[in-house]
Amino acid sequence: MARIETPKRIRGTQDIFGEEQRRFARVVDAFEYVRRLYCFQRVEVPIFESTAVFARSLGETTDVVSKEMYSFEDRGGDSLTLRPEFTAGIARAYLTEGWQQYAPLKLVTHGPVFRYERPQKGRYRQFHQIDAEIIGAPEAAADIELLVFADQLLRELKISDGVTLQLNTLGDAETRDAWRAALVTHFEQHEGDLSQDSKDRLTRNPLRILDSKDPKDRPIADAAPDIDSYLTSEAGGFFESVAKGLDAAGVAWTRNSRLVRGLDYYRHTAFEFVTDRLGAQGTVLAGGRYDGLIGSLGGPETPGIGWAAGIERLAMLLDEPDAENFEVAVVPDRAEFEERAIGIVAQLRRAGISCDLAFRGNAKRRTELAIKRNAGAILFLRDENEPSGDLYLKYLGNDIEGVRDIAARVQTALGVSNLYSGTR
Ligand code: ATP
Ligand code: MG
């Protein structure tokens, strides 16, 4: 008989389990907690969109669109793409679902995104992002709120030490055009010394040369003209308001005049939270203002600003999370008490007490298992004629908060008046 080959996990995807999953969950929980503090509304959007949604909004020449998208034709012959990021799909929804009526809108979401790139540590083909957007607000106050939100999230996760907020402005359309022309002139003068990638970028996306990591490009990029001398007074004033707001909120930042974002739709504020703890994958959270995006999707010109962060990269920075534990393990002393045990765990769980009853094993085995799995206490079910009663609660460890009040809660949940208990 032919052997059946076990299917393989697809390269660049992950099965997230155990400690890794607990880290992941902590990022998502902290994000949910902070977004409520900032009054952002949660949305869910599709995992796939028409390819045009991403191609038009991200720009045909960007890395993501030119080589990283998972695009396919569905059975109806439509070209679809697995989302490589959230912003474009949210902007599409804003237009097609009439969300304009709620503007300005503060939104968050999280979930899987897909990019066909070379997998390595901190870089996957299916990875996960948390994402925050404000649509319909041209005010610097929106930029500030979004950045303070990001900063608080990193503090909440206790990873803000060693993470720097790098801030730049890409100016308004007028600024950007003038600066772009000056950059092209500068890079053309040194074209012969640029890396091949940067030569290609020269016509397609000259701003990207600025943040090239190729050592050949660095001296030329470092000598390139700053945006500052091209900033219109309006764009300069806007940047100053953002900077002052961050100072007022107590969020530290540094100017990085070489910071440009990979996608074409950005205007004004661009930022990255960067750490030196993740090697080449040092950007943990990044975003900017995208006032050009909704217009490029055929909608009315609408300002927007947002950020996204890789959940995996945040998770890697976390301290080791506590092992998961629970409050009460129920252990019947004898096989005849099995049904009583089922009744009791149901009662405890309905009363909001986390508890577990092992599927098999005698009392000794189940006790060992309860200890191994970090139960806060064991509730033994015993003979009715035991002098100290047919229930006995034994405390284990002190890793569960409020282990002392557990006896009272178990007593209330089971409606018994005097529960015997003790320590190990
Ligand atoms: P990079 O320069 O690392 O490729 P990027 O500019 O492509 O990042 P964004 O498009 O800004 O990244 O995405 C926001 C965040 O998503 C990044 O800061 C990073 O934390 C995360 N991220 C991006 N690509 C990947 C990936 N392939 N695997 C895991 N996380 C990723
Ligand atoms: Mg990338």
Write a structural description.
- This protein is α/β, with parallel strands linked by helices and about 425 residues long.
- The chain has 2 domains: about 20-170 and about 230-315, Bira Bifunctional Protein, Domain 2 (BirA Bifunctional Protein, domain 2, 2-Layer Sandwich), CATH 3.30.930; about 325-424, Anticodon-binding domain (Rossmann fold, 3-Layer(aba) Sandwich), CATH 3.40.50.800.
- About 35% of the residues lie in helices and about 20% in strands.
- It contains 14 helices and 16 strands.
- The chain has helices at about 20-35, 50-60, 65-70, 85-95, 140-155, 175-190, 195-205, 220, 235-250, 295, 310-315, 340-350, 365-370, 405-415; strands spanning about 40, 50, 70-75, 80, 105-115, 125-135, 165-170, 255, 265-275, 285-290, 305-310, 325-330, 355, 375-380, 390-395, 420-424.
- Strands 1-5-6-11-10-9-7-8 form an 8-stranded mixed beta sheet. The protein has a 5-stranded mixed beta sheet with strand order 13-12-14-15-16. A 3-stranded antiparallel beta sheet has the order 2-4-3.
- Strand 12 (about 325-330), helix 12 and strand 13 form a beta-alpha-beta unit.
- Helix 1 (about 20-35) runs antiparallel to helix 5 (about 140-155), helix 1 crosses helix 11 and helix 5 (about 140-155) runs parallel beside helix 9.
- The longest helix has 20 residues, at about 20-35.
- The protein is elongated and about 95 Å long.
- The two termini are about 55 Å apart.
- The structure holds adenosine-5'-triphosphate (ATP) and magnesium ion (MG).
